[in-house]
Amino acid sequence: MTDPIVTSNIFAPNYSVTGIRSENPDNTLVLITGSCPLSGVNTQAMLYRGPKNPADSSGCICLTPNVGKTITSSLLYGPDTPLFNPSIKATHVRVVGSYKYANDPLGDVDHGVLYEGPPDGSAGWKTIDIPDSVAGGVVRNRIPHSTMGELVVGNYDLTDVDPGKFNAFIYNIHTGRYQQLKLKLESGIVAELVTAYGIWQNGIGSTSYTIAGGLYDGSGLNVGYLVDYDSETLLTSNLKTFSYDTEPGLLTHFEGITECGEGCYSLAATGDQDAADSGAAFAVVKRKADGSFSEAEWQRVEAAGSGVTTGNTVLTNNLFGIYTTGNGFQSYVAENLPVADVKAEG
Fold first, then answer.
1. Which range marks the domain in which residue 274 is found?
2. What DSSP designation does 184 have?
3. Is the Cβ–Cβ distance between 97 and 45 less than 8 Å?
4. Rounded distance, CA 17 to CA 47, Å?
5. Number of domains comprising the chain
């Protein structure tokens, strides 16, 4: 791995960036999701439209999901735009996220939300909560993380299980169907602690998608993964796991995925924060001739003087995330990262 890439701050302090999608072919207009700070530890859902490197938060729209409840906190994730999804009305956006509300009988938990409408949040909010009957138990938290095409991916946990043990789900917007994302490793073991943070549709209108996230590999380590999913057959294929900088001992998680050319994926990654040479990273993976994935090429990204740096989302060869400061956190962008000549043969 080469030396860390220098980052530039975006937005005001404590405005988070969680997702990004282009609104035009040359990436000069983008839609960014995240959160606006509220008093205490609460946040308010945020949308931003404009250049990919905003110097301040003047373009941020702070939103409250309109779902008929008194919202106490909210956050938006992975957006989709008409450029990639013609089913979205021109000038409209589609985003997913989560919210909490006052006097919730389930307690202080997250509920999933989908929004499709004008960027000002004026119409189109819908709660999307995976039902207990599909989840395999009583669900506590539901957090959709990304949407593209007809699908939403995200995570949930159960009331009778350690809160840190999430499971992944897929939601089909058109059919209303929820599905657990079950992944079987080469060893034959069904993976545990599966998360789904990013999704990419492999062509407009295609039933082929690639999902990115993390899982427990059965040998004591959390690793990143890529897997293909077909929305018609509901089946997965080409599962491959990844370790930060191809070092098996480092914890790894993919948090965003985008295309960086034909058969090329760029990924936002976060590694073990306790390791000196881990943290946020930009990774590039190519598709092999047989449809499987190559090994990743890694580029470390670190904000100077920061405590913890995360890689939250990616736009072609631009990585976005946050880093901790003495007064909270700061969002950043690392622009024009090198898309390495990853070998895809075999």
1. 8-334
2. B
3. yes
4. 9
5. 1
In a domain, 94, yes or no: yes
Q: How far apart are CA 15 and CA 191, in angstroms?
A: 34
As a whole number of angstroms, the distance between CA 258 and CA 132 comes to 31
Q: What is the CATH number of the domain that holds 286?
A: 2.120.10.10
Please report where in the chains the tokens 């939403």 appear, as a residue: 152
Question: How far apart are the C-alpha atoms of 273 and 267, rounded to whole Å?
Answer: 18
Percent of the chain at pLDDT above 90? 75
List b or e across 39-68, with b for residues whose CB sees 16 or more CB atoms inside 10 angstroms.
eeeebbbbbbbeebebeebeebebbebeee
pLDDT digits (tens, 9 = 90+) for 246-285: 887 778 899 999 999 999 999 999 987 665 556 899 999 9
The answer to whether residue 343 sits within a structural domain is: no
Cα 38 from Cα 42, distance rounded (Å): 5
Tens digits of residue pLDDT in 200-246: 999 999 999 999 999 998 776 789 999 999 999 999 999 999 998 88
- H or E element that contains 133: helix 132-135
